[in-house]
């Protein structure tokens, strides 16, 4: 069975993070995800949305919206987030390899963990550029009953 | 992020409450740096009240840890919730930012 929640559209500014979080948590509750899964999905949305707000729109001097829609099937919860900032595929950002996460304090760079945490906390993350739109998809597998 | 400061001999215990994300992290970092500026060199962060941490929060922890180490001090974490602890471990922070289950255990290592 497919459940599709009504989409949410918010301004692409940091003030909108709480609305995106609430939407995500509602979808997690509807789907009956575990606490760990809900935390992971919420974190992934937070990290990518923050990138869009700060870098995609903010640092480029642009304004725009972010939309999010949840689809729940028997197998998966999929959140699709879209924005109109310049093309950006987060998967292409250098993700810290395991060795760099073991580096001593003095050698650890400040930052660069957002995309890594995103990829680690969802079962699948996809990106497409469609027309002038970035589409980021976050997929969590539901536990089998 | 609410930060409450307590003293236990020469250890400064900071009880953190709320979210450590891109909205709250800049202010949390300012508050923590101000505490270092006042001379605190042994910090115990009681994180039982942290309900959420993102990469922005990790950045604050890393910045403060680097700073206190450069000053010859020590910093430890205690009483993390399971999800927050999972993120700290995933980021590989526990090798330089020790995590303890209880405040008592954490205090012993700072003594």
Keywords:
heterodimer, A: 145 residues, alpha+beta, Heat Shock Protein 90, 4 helices, 26% strand, B: 111 residues, alpha/beta, Transcription Regulator spoIIAA, 5-stranded mixed sheet, 41% helix
Summarize the structure.
The complex is a heterodimer of chains A (145) and B (111). With 145 residues, chain A is of the alpha+beta class.
Main pleated-sheet profile of chain A? 6 strands, antiparallel
Please state the second-level CATH architecture of chain A.
2-Layer Sandwich
List low-confidence stretches of chain B. Answer: none
Outline of chain A, from the CA principal axes? globular
Residue share in β-strands of chain B:
25-35%
Quick one: biggest sheet of chain B? 5 strands, mixed
Report low-confidence residues of chain A grouped into runs of 5 or more.
none
Side by side, the strands of the main sheet of chain B go 1-2-3-4-5
How many helix segments of chain A?
A: 4
**Superfamily at the CATH H level of chain B?**
STAS domain
Distance between the termini of chain A: 14 Å
Output the structural class of chain B.
Answer: alpha/beta
Report on the structure:
The complex is a heterodimer of chains A (145) and B (111). Chain A has 145 residues and is an alpha+beta fold. Chain A has one domain: Histidine kinase-like ATPase, C-terminal domain (Heat Shock Protein 90, 2-Layer Sandwich). Chain A has four helices and six strands. In chain A, strand 5 and strand 6 form a beta hairpin. In chain A, helix 2 runs antiparallel to helix 4. The mean pLDDT of chain A is 93. By secondary structure, chain B is of the alpha/beta class. Chain B has one domain: Transcription Regulator spoIIAA. Chain B contains four helices and five strands. In chain B, helix 1 runs parallel beside helix 2. The N and C termini of chain B lie far apart (27 Å). At the A-B interface, helix 2 and helix 4 of A face helix 2 and helix 3 of B.
